[in-house]
Amino acid sequence: MTRFSDNDLKHAFTEFNTKYFRFGKKKMSHLLSVEWHRFEGSESGVMGDMNQVVPSPLCDGWVSAYKIRINREYKDRREWRTWMLTLLHEMAHFKLAGIDPGKDLCNSRMFNREMKRLANAGALNGLW
Which residues contact 96 (CB under 8 A, 6 or more apart)? Predict the structure, then answer.
């Protein structure tokens, strides 16, 4: 059974960023990584998350840094739609970090507007 690699995940992030987000250098300086992650225990059913890391010296002026983590259970080639949709979802959260007061909620007005923008731009075509 073929599985996706770390490079596949990073390539998808770069492609989505180029086509649908265009995060600038300042925004990207807050992203520490995009990675496969093993969610365990009470988090075992989590598809992915955008994990805020305690303020980091790696970012400008000790501001918050983020990691986008996708559940490694979806690395199987049959699950490509699931992890790509999850990646887009988490990238929308990353875009709204520091802007949307309800950023932790997937039903905030700003988040829903961003997901509709992605759908209208064609980001979800072939994935849902």
Answer: 103, 108, 110, 111, 114
Instruction: Please give the sequence-ordered ranges of beta strands (E in DSSP) within 24-64, or none if there are none.
Output: 31-37, 48-53
- Once rounded to an integer, what is the mean pLDDT over residues 44-55? 82
E strand or H helix that includes residue 67: strand 65-71
CB 32 within 8 A of CB 58: yes
Statement: residue 127 has pLDDT above 60 = yes
Q: What is the pLDDT of residue 61?
A: 55
pTM: 0.88
In which element (H, E) is residue 70 found? strand 65-71
Show the CA angle centred on residue 62, arms to residues 102 and 30, nearest 5°: 60
What is the token pair recorded at 26? 């300042």
- List alpha helices for 2-103, DSSP H: 6-16, 25-28, 80-96
> What dihedral do alpha carbons 69, 71, 72, 73 form, nearest 10°?
-170
Q: Which residue has the tokens 């039903």?
A: 107
> Cα(77)–Cα(105) distance, rounded to whole angstroms?
29
